[in-house]
Amino acid sequence: MGFGIKTPEAAQTIASVADGAVVGSAIVERIAKGESVADILAFVKSLADGAHRA
Known about the structure:
The protein is mostly helical and 54 residues long. The protein has 3 helices and no strands. It has helices at 8-15, 24-32, 37-52. Helix 1 (8-15) runs parallel beside helix 3. The model has no long low-confidence stretch (mean pLDDT 89).
């Protein structure tokens, strides 16, 4: 499932009803804003943590 997953809470909601979540555009947006690799990795971890809470 995908489309609009940009927060740990959204990842948790989706993970409770789907086998996976696609967050590519949220990552690309952060790259385009010039965020550091460390910040992007922290963002991805926050989404994974949210999904794992489901």
